[in-house]
Amino acid sequence: MPIGEVQPSVRPARVGRTDGAAGAATRRGVARSRRGRGMRSERLAPYVLLAPAVLIIVLLRLYPLLLGVNFSFTGDGERNGVAVGLDNYLELLRDPLFRTALGNVGLLVLLLPVAVAIPGLLATFIYLRVPGHRLYRSVYFFPAVLSPVIVGAIFNLLLAFDGPVNAVLGSVGVGAVDWLGDPDVAMFVVVGVHVWATFGMGLVVFLAGFATLDSALLDAARVDGASLPQVIWHVIVPGLSRTIQFVFVTTMIGMLTSMFGLLYVMTSGGPEGSTYLPEYYIWIQQGQMNRPALASAASTVLFVIMLVVGLLQIKLLKRAAREV
């Protein structure tokens, strides 16, 4: 290098700082990647948890339901497996026993508010701690653990023409009533026995609903001088609207699908077919008449009835809760 020439200065590279910046960027990228995977996992977690339940419902509920509906459009006997269109449904409409069963369904829908009001009022009294409320809670629930066969046998003895109930009526000058042999009375008796045997479950649900009720509202109503009917109508009913909807729907389903044991033991569908319900009619067609396709059609009609009535009940109850 010539003597007068100035050598250019070379600035050393800052290796450590560059490596540190690159490392920080890498760590930020890894963190973002992990957060992305975590967010995806959180989004997928509900679907993974619900998948077994959905699979069970599809395989054990929806698929058999679709098979039953499809089977209802086929024939019985010599026409077994042959598509018959709406013949089974038309035969149901022509069958007086099935028409009686549908009429009894209408009766159950009319009596449903009573079946819900009984456990609701009893749960209200227990919640307000009437004397002996702990004893009442266990006593009211006890019938719910009894088999329908046992309940039916007990009431067959009590309601026999020469049984204890008619003996008590005779002692006060009232004539004996054929509780299970009179076509105009038998269905009301069976429904009453069913309500007695099952209202304990509704009672438990109402008590669980009361646990979510704001007690400050009740205290405010008492301070304002509200009577018990006013407290029930303006405080308890709006506060338990969701619970009431649930009890209405479950009670309706129970009345339409869980009375077979009582019907079989107490009346066997009699007298004169006056206590037929769709579930009993289905059993007769499937088990005794060997007509599974007709029974499938009746099952489909029962499912549609429960679906329509349940949706209408929920809609009416929501509207009533807004108006209260």
TrEMBL record:
It is found in: Cell membrane. Keywords: Cell membrane, Membrane, Transmembrane, Transmembrane helix, Transport. It comes from Plantactinospora endophytica. Belongs to the binding-protein-dependent transport system permease family. SUPFAM superfamilies: MetI-like (SSF161098). This is Sugar ABC transporter permease. It is a multi-pass membrane protein. Residues 13-27 have a biased composition (Low complexity). Coiled coil: none annotated. InterPro entries: MetI-like, MetI-like_sf, UgpAE/MalFG_permease. It comes from the Bacteria. Residues 1-27 are annotated as: Disordered. Residues 97-313 form the ABC transmembrane type-1 domain. CDD domains: TM_PBP2. Gene3D superfamilies: MetI-like (1.10.3720.10). The chain crosses the membrane at residues 44-63, 105-128, 140-161, 185-213, 246-266, 293-312.
